[in-house]
Amino acid sequence: MKQILFYAIANVLLGVNIAAQNTCVLFDRTNNAPVAYANVYKSEEKTIIGTVSDENGSFTIDFEYKQLNISHINYESVVIDGTLNDTIYLVPKVGILNEVVVKSGEPSWIRPFMKRFIRENKKRYSQGVIHFDYDYVSRNVSDSSGYWFESDGKIRIQNDNKGIICKISPNLGIIHYKDSTAGCDFSNMKRMLYNDFVDLLDDKFLKKHSFMENDAFVSENKNIIQLLFKSTKYGDGDKGLITVDTARCLILSAKRETGLDYNLNTNTDGVTRSSIRLATGYRYTRWFVSIETLYRTDGENAYPEDYKYKMLICSESDKEKYKGTRFESVESSICLKTSPDNKENKYIELPKPWYMKIIVSKEERLNEEKLQAIPKKYVLY
Asked: For residue 45, what are the CA distances in angstroms to 65, 98, 129, 259?
């Protein structure tokens, strides 16, 4: 009888899905601050079902699971094998400064400094043709599916008065998916490379944003200061932090976060949105994008070294066929290391990024076909 009872309990603990409807809050273990927009999902039997934490780090699980995965690009991943606690603490991969303390008004030195940086950055940041080795990872989790793509190889970045042109020579592409129907996804690589903060920083940007010094930032080097910027039009819907070296007039790192109104107006057009809404009834309720860039300095010059990209899009529809709420959460990163060019490499031009676009040029289509034709390996979940 005891043996039968033991096996019954073991089967309950090891073989049965955990019951649903659990609410939990995610916190940063170091800073004791809520972790927003973390992916929470199960990956079982070729199916992914998930949700995402809100601005306060809270999420609710309304599905059964054997194992629950929690991931965020800035934190170590967590796997839950049992029931959820009320609070789960995530360990940051790097030091994350959550505290921002600013004095009222914009200090008089900031705007002249930024104008000087704009004048001088053309000769300091990735000018001419530069070659890098790259490692690229992109993960996508939605309410009903999941996808993970890995690629490494060479990047050739040409930056001149005509703008940036990026070309890549990929090695093997690794695709994690439920079957072998998915292709390669370089879309977020395009968004990071073509939206580099230094290249976007110009006189128009200065006019549209205000700047303040972050008094909570501490550095052993008194010349290194952190600035907070905020849009005069979108407010917190377009804000960020930049770390600057005032002595060398360099930007060492930058982080920009944009919200729903900014992304709708910048990344889509009204005609396309209206067409999609008419067909499906979907309307956007949340659109959050964060891009972080770390620059490596070499004397008076600087190069991008590390990119992190996070996007969350939520939408709702009242149409019967599409009725409900949908979300898509994307996390991507690129690590770059300068390297000499190999003349044997065959490069493919990366088309400029876009979110919603009906017409694609012939050149863009041909380059996309080349990107999809690289050697691939599938890892099925």
From this structure: 11, 38, 47, 35
**Rounded Cα distance, 96 and 31, in Å:** 8
C-alpha gyration radius of the chain: 23
| Rounded Cα distance, 354 and 29, in Å | 36
Q: Render each residue's pLDDT in the chain as its tens digit; 381 residues.
A: 444 343 333 344 444 455 455 889 999 998 889 999 999 999 887 788 889 999 999 999 988 888 899 999 999 999 998 888 899 999 998 755 556 777 778 999 999 999 999 998 877 886 678 899 999 999 999 988 899 999 999 999 987 767 788 999 999 999 999 999 999 999 999 999 998 999 899 999 999 999 999 988 989 999 999 999 999 999 999 999 999 999 999 999 999 999 999 999 988 877 777 777 778 888 899 999 999 999 998 877 888 999 999 999 999 998 888 888 899 999 999 999 999 887 778 899 998 887 655 567 888 889 899 999 999 999 988
- DSSP state for residue 31 in the 8-state scheme: T
Smallest CA-to-CA distance from 114 within 196, 277, 3, 229 is with: 229
Q: What CA–CA distances, in Å, run from 298 to 115, 221, 230, 252? A: 22, 17, 29, 11
- Taking the C-alpha atoms of residue 69 and residue 51, their distance in angstroms, rounded to an integer, is 11
Instruction: Determine how β-strand 224-231 pairs with β-strand 235-245.
Output: antiparallel
Eight-class DSSP state of 205: H
